[in-house]
Amino acid sequence: MRIVVTGSSGLVGSRLVRRFKERGQTVVGVDREPGTPSVVDQFVRGDLAREAIRQQALEGADAIVHLAAAKDDWGIDDETFFFENLEVTRRLIEDARARDIHDWVFYSSVAAMGPGDEPRSEEASLVPNGAYGTSKMKAERLFQEYAKEVPEMSCVILRPSIIFGPGHFSYTNVHRLIEAIRGNRFLMVGDGQAIKTTSYIENVIGATLYLWERRSKGIQTYIYVDEPVRTTEKLVDDIYRLLGKRRPGVRIPLQLAKSIAWVADVAADWTGINFPITADRIEKFNTSTNYDASAIREEGFEQPVGIEEALRKTVNWHLEHVN
Fold it and tell me: What is this structure's pTM?
């Protein structure tokens, strides 16, 4: 089978390329940036918004794992989110259908569901908060419409929570948290009782391959989060412990922190600098993202890496690789 992996230079894509190759698959990587593993059979460097890039990538393909997306919490406007995550997906689907390529894995996000205090499963209503989550929700609908029109179509939609692990990007939340604690720049804001579900990279890869091997016709949607889930208080305590640092007892009230962050937001607007503290990041830190991933476990998937080991590996990578 010839599998196209979009976003093949990213944290997830680069690892999936290697795992598919280990399973004897022919793999085509597609990305705007270099970094796709050299084991790939073909690398197409370019923007998927361009028809020529899509046509080159899809030539002779049997299946598509669609990871490429706009994802950051600063510096990306709503128009870009909808173009990169929705319109480009629409174009890719149209070109794949024209070539009778109907086998998919689509990486959505729990952001398509929106945050919440109570754990929610795949059956919960989708109430996204912001352009990123809304663009992912609408992209999911493209695949659902596709499945209604093409009975032989198969698509695994995976909604992971925040993905972290060795090599994760500097804009990711867990990376920022580790580096803030490591550099003595962190103070707890709020009561620390928000639930924060996370997804360790190797567990996400394992879940993807597990579902891929058991895919069937139609749409199969699964949430993935690591278990057991943690509060922000627990996550912060664990990072301090793994870094061998003593946690300060100071805690900033949430409303005071938001007021302080407002100044940083104004400065960011004036200077174009991505400051580590923003009102939006403080709000997200204190908002629960609680999801129920029991469905994939009921299918027989077992999380290969425990959360303690996952966080330890990630912290050790920071100590070795991040200056």
Answer: 0.91
